[in-house]
Amino acid sequence: MDNHGIEIDPLFCFPDDFKVLEGTDINITWDICHYSNTLANMMDVLSGKQHRKYYPNIQNAKIEDFTKLNSRISHWHFSAFKGIADPKTGSKCTEGVLPIDSTLGENFYKKCLRLVEGNSSTKRKITLEIQEENYVQRTTVKKMIKWINLIAN
Length: 153
Prior knowledge:
Number of strands: 5
Structural class: alpha/beta
Low-confidence stretches: none
Number of domains: 1
Strand content: 5-15%
Mean pLDDT: 87
Order of helices and strands: EHEEEHEH
Number of helices: 3
Shape: globular
Largest sheet: 3 strands, parallel
Strand order of the largest sheet: 1-2-5
Distance between the termini: 36 Å
């Protein structure tokens, strides 16, 4: 589903989908925001909040499942999202929000950050994909850096 609940893209990627890369030199960029949105959508579908017809690739995935890919992940994208796009209700999704403003809550992203930190080979290679109201002043990304430093220390 796109962020506005208009176009349906029923393809969600789960860690097991990357098994096809075994035996290759291809690495992975893992996007925490996209994966967390996948998990939230799966929870909504499995609980009956969203219609299963929109999402044929349903799996009961867990937050830590992406750690199976640690040896292949060479880069991380990190942010949170707010809202779940749903054509039935008209709700929308906003990506690039701070964990404290997210749908899944700050503790969810604390756990994700700790799991990312646990992967020592890529610990320092994180792109913060944060939306800003003012891209000159960038106050939101500064708040995200402060949040990360509080969690990491």
